[in-house]
Amino acid sequence: MTIWELISDLSESILYHYREKLRGLIFLEGNPNLMLVILEEVDTISFLARGQIFNYFYKSLRKTEKGKKWVLEKRSDPSIRGIIISPKELEFNLPIVVIISSLGHVLYDPDNIFIQSNKKIVNYMGKKLIDLKNVKRGEVVDI
Question: Which residues contact 39 (CB under 8 A, 6 or more apart)?
Fold first, then answer.
């Protein structure tokens, strides 16, 4: 059993529950595994309450057959952490959100918020930065 099977089930349950309010899902595999959930109308909810929302889905996942199988095989719970933000909060460029959105796998993106472009210069908090992952070795980039 792989983490991707669990992420698939987790994503489906979040999508089924929130439907039109879900604006995006991104998964970054690592230790811990991180899932970024973009939901409309959560900007007035505290981060603690958002964590409880994610924990509801996480606990539901652990109760499924796949979740139980994971625990039996790995002898631990799946290491998945969730961060829930609103589409408006994406513009704040929080470091963890930037990392997940640039290195993670887009699972759901109906509005093409996370189109992976090959921009070499990005605007970050009003400053121009060079995105080194899109620059080839020896390439000159004008700012």
Answer: 18, 21, 22, 23, 84, 85, 86
pLDDT (tens digit, 9 = 90+) per residue, 44-68?
999 999 999 999 999 999 999 999 9
Size (the chain), residues: 143
Q: In the sheet that 80-85 helps form, which strands lie side by side, from edge to edge?
A: 80-85, 33-39, 22-28, 105-108
Count of CB atoms within 10 A of residue 123's CB?
A: 10
- As assigned by CATH, the class of the 3-114 domain is alpha beta
37 exposed, middle or buried (CB, 10 Å; 0-12, 13-18, 19+)?
buried
Contact between residue 21 and residue 40 where contact means Cβ atoms under 8 Å apart: yes
pLDDT, tens only, 95-135: 899 889 888 899 999 988 876 555 666 666 667 777 666 67
Supply the pTM of this predicted model. Answer: 0.80
Q: Do the beta carbons of residue 104 and residue 27 sit within 8 Å?
A: yes
